[in-house]
Structures
1.
Amino acid sequence: AQSVTQLGSHVSVSEGALVLLRCNYSSSVPPYLFWYVQYPNQGLQLLLKYTTGATLVKGINGFEAEFKKSETSFHLTKPSAHMSDAAEYFCAVSASHSGYALNFGKGTSLLVTP
Amino acid sequence: EAGVTQFPSHSVIEKGQTVTLRCDPISGHDNLYWYRRVMGKEIKFLLHFVKESKQDESGMPNNRFLAERTGGTYSTLKVQPAELEDSGVYFCASSQTDGGGAFFGQGTRLTVV
């Protein structure tokens, strides 16, 4: 079985500050890990993914995440928040044995203040 | 290239009625998934098609839900009869076979009153 825990349902940062959204996973097999973002009134957009290889992955809009097996974590970061980053962010895990169906965390709403 | 398209974007129906949601995946994507987000809860997997075959329907809530994928192209999700607890946002996603992530539609917001 696979699961994801996102710490903090709401995170608030100032514009220009570091963004850190936490994600811990549980998986009995090597995981595939994802971050998706949902802007208001839109669908889910893939931000970045880790499947194999380099553990530090870069995504769109300046976001990156690092797969840390020892900590079972896949935290999302961005050095400097922009107002347009305000959205809901979802961490997800999948595996080949389950047809790559995604198991999502509960989501974290990011608020960016001026 | 068109993305994943879902129809309708919103639907409000009365308890006991029937509703059919449609999803058009990205052309060439054999995998098609349905997910649902009930208000305040996480996004939950419903089922997975590979082409026209149901690969995994372990997430379907009950037998009031019926999904089909005609000819391995578009898919429909029918709820009959709808209950209040079926309200939520239904997402469809499609992907290739490499596990590199799925592309999502904008979702259908279903409200059962």
2.
Amino acid sequence: AQSVTQPDIHITVSEGASLELRCNYSYGATPYLFWYVQSPGQGLQLLLKYFSGDTLVQGIKGFEAEFKRSQSSFNLRKPSVHWSDAAEYFCAVGATFGNEKLTFGTGTRLTIIP
Amino acid sequence: KAGVTQTPRYLIKTRGQQVTLSCSPISGHRSVSWYQQTPGQGLQFLFEYFSETQRNKGNFPGRFSGRQFSNSRSEMNVSTLELGDSALYLCASSPSTGRFNEQYFGPGTRLTVT
């Protein structure tokens, strides 16, 4: 079965600074990979997804992520964060065969300081 | 197009009681998945329904059940509530079943068991 690790529980960055959130996965092949964001009191919104092809994926709200097979990673990046980016971010993996659903990481809470 | 709606948004129940949560998917979406989100366990998949049939089931006890109606609306039921069932229950819909489909999440139902 697949698994996802988000090593950072909480990250604080200054507004305007760059951001990188880490995600490592475990799976026997190339999985489907997703990043979701959850604002307080809200459901999850899909930021971006990787199925195949170009390993650098562009998403909404200025986010991008890079799939690195050699490192089993799918880190999320943003060049300049805005106060509205404060939220919880979840990385998720889906199997490319079988009948399994998404497996989520434990999330990284992002705090933005002015 | 209206998003995924969940009712009620907040619920307080007593141990031993049962509860029913409702989810209305995006119009035209036929797949509905349910997830439980807790601080300790994170996001865990409960089950998925497609065309009124349960397609996938997570690792939860039989106290957790669900169903889907012909209009794709779904309900989940938890019987004999335990304190550990306190969680945010998220519903997600997608146009079809299968891991290629992007899931759209509702705002969740916050269940508190006392």
3.
Amino acid sequence: RKEVEQDPGPFNVPEGATVAFNCTYSNSASQSFFWYRQDCRKEPKLLMSVYSSGNEDGRFTAQLNRASQYISLLIRDSKLSDSATYLCVVKNFNKFYFGSGTKLNVKP
Amino acid sequence: EAGVAQSPRYKIIEKRQSVAFWCNPISGHATLYWYQQILGQGPKLLIQFQNNGVVDDSQLPKDRFSAERLKGVDSTLKIQPAKLEDSAVYLCACTSTRDEQYFGPGTRLTVT
């Protein structure tokens, strides 16, 4: 079983839509959680850390559900520039595990 | 602050040749990672350094891959001999005290 699993998508949404991605992780002892954004042929860049209480940064909201072992990312009012692959990252015992990413296409 | 530097950005070699990649992390970031990212997949850890010591190299194919970080700053990753399946992007990253990883632009390797 993979440490981190994501729906690869693609999610095709119109501008202004709200879209949500989930990511599941297998190790209940996982300590830290993150969402990264990766544009085509670019390196991953940190989008946001995910805290137990959930956190929001502008149009982006991340939540953690430890009981069900998943994290989520909600994007409101999608922009064309949000088109990218979103990588879920989980840290266990000093080691980072990456999901394969969820591809988002925002259409005009 | 300056980001993570990597070179070269692109490399094309024939199978069985050797290749080396270089990484210079953000100043003061003690932990350095090398990842391999194959198209359509997430980055896979090859090796992790804490200062100049190896923390984890369990997924490094040691028969052909080697890495070093002699002075605890910059690092090199070498492949010798290369195979077709080594074609990938090799990413170097370092972490801040808050576990946030910062990636370099990567080296895109094509093995023909």
4.
Amino acid sequence: EAGVVQSPRYKIIEKKQPVAFWCNPISGHNTLYWYRQNLGQGPELLIRYENEEAVDDSQLPKDRFSAERLKGVDSTLKIQPAELGDSAVYLCASSLFGADSSYEQYFGPGTRLTVT
Amino acid sequence: SQQGEEDPQALSIQEGENATMNCSYKTSINNLQWYRQNSGRGLVHLILIRSNEREKHSGRLRVTLDTSKKSSSLLITASRAADTASYFCATDAGNAGNMLTFGGGTRLMVKP
């Protein structure tokens, strides 16, 4: 079974440039998460989708970050314009949440963003 | 903000020794999970303990939960060099559909 796929794995951009990350969750998983992980810290949730609906985006800096999950499958996270402080690893995770949920989240390998 | 705090932040042991990591959290929970992250990789789920459970085992892993103290511990017995990784606890408050809040992690190094 294929795991959560993310691309690109690494991205280096100059500040003020736009950047986009893509995530393909595990087939059949209805819930998708985007996390940001700063160096030496744990992941922090940016946004959570149940199917195609964003149900929790309170931690997403909406002035520069946007996300979408078309058709309730793949998702894209965008930053425009990027700032130096956005340098981090962006992790995507998915889970099957519902009556039979195991509550386990499956993580992709992440995209390491460096803003110069 | 991060709900959990792991202790210690870093731990170095010899192969064969046991490793114990602790996690404290602030609000009531539905369950608590432990994840492992190898360098440059995503997180991998290790074990989940529900709020009405006190202890759980999985292979060389043993997790305890004390809801009165809002704390949990992860014990890895007979450690191996391959256990070298960062370990994170994550709490699910149960009020927002499988939403986890992660701690800052413990960086474990097991020397061969």
